[in-house]
Amino acid sequence: MAISRTVPWAELDTIFFDAGNTFLSMDFDRVAAAASSLGVECSGRQLERAEAAARPVLSAALAERRTTEGGGAFRFYLRATLERLPASRRDGVELDAVASGLAERLFSPGRNDRLWNRRLPGRREALERIRALGYRMVVVSNSDGSMARTLTRIGMDQLFDGLVDSTVVGFEKPDSRIFEVALDLVDARPERTVHIGDLYAADVIGAWAAGVHAVLLDPWADWPEMDCPKVADLDELASLLPGPPGRA
User: Fold this and answer.
1) Is 177 exposed, middle or buried (0-12, 13-18, 19+ CB in 10 A)?
2) In CATH terms, is domain 9-24+116-240 a member of 3.40.50.1000?
3) Residues 6 or more apart in contact with residue 231 via CB below 8 angstroms
4) Mean pLDDT of 19-37
5) Buried b or exposed e, range 57-83, using 16+ CB within 10 angstroms
6) Closest CA relative to residue 136, chosen from 41, 5, 13, 42
7) Distances in Å between the alpha carbon of 146 and those of 193, 207, 223?
8) Residues 6+ positions from 26 with CB-CB distance below 8 Å
9) Going by C-beta distance under 8 Å and a sequence separation of 6 or more, which residues neighbour residue 164?
10) What is the mean pLDDT of residues 59-63?
11) Chain segment 125-179, per-residue pLDDT in tens
12) Backbone torsions φ then ψ of 140, nearest 5 degrees
């Protein structure tokens, strides 16, 4: 299905949200403590910045791996993040070994909620602002079946009209079917729906494949010129929404 790269903001009535790095993040302080014990001395804040810088690399790899889930993908993700720490923090360290050690300590199938449990600052307020405008809101997440628990744990489950967890439905972004499940869940039309997420290959390409509009989240301007709209955060997204949409 062909889709315009320009989002028709005044025509939208539904918004899909990726979860990880959109309104939720991993516990970077915990990861930093584990990394330090393995020889990479760093802070949670340094890791958080490095992770954002690694997203274009992870997105490019997704085109070949076709998955963001599983232990192998998590090790690759960690390795790419470690590579983007300041050189003084990683010189003389075998990053492959550190990434493997971190994966062993942190990867727990079916229990992503133990690591991905930090609500990003200001995101709840932005989501409440969007919800108050009258949009239908659905979480569309590549997860391990634990996203419902995570939303409840961070007190954000009541903000959304639905949740689609890839493990629960059996389709993972960028498979267009996960977006089609979300559309059916709230009886939404793709041309009146926009999805926002942090990985081009999963969130943007997947949404377009389903005929859904897409916006890439780029808080640090790490992505080069892209063929899709970008925003720094959910506050910027909210500022683009014109108000209560008309419903057909």
Assistant:
1) middle
2) yes
3) 196, 215, 216, 217, 218, 237, 240
4) 95
5) bbbebbeeeeebbeeebbbbbbbbbbe
6) 13
7) 25, 22, 29
8) 20, 51, 115, 116, 117, 118
9) 138, 139, 140, 141, 178, 181, 182, 185
10) 83
11) 999 999 999 999 999 999 999 999 999 999 999 999 999 999 999 999 999 999 9
12) -120, 105
Question: CB-based burial of residue 184 (10 Å sphere; 0-12 exposed, 13-18 middle, 19+ buried)?
Answer: exposed
Between CA 104 and CA 25 the distance in angstroms is 19
Is the pLDDT at 66 greater than 90? The verdict is no
Q: Which of 104-108, 160-164, 179-183, 224-228 has the lowest mean pLDDT?
A: 104-108
What is the widest separation between alpha-carbon atoms in the chain? Answer: 61
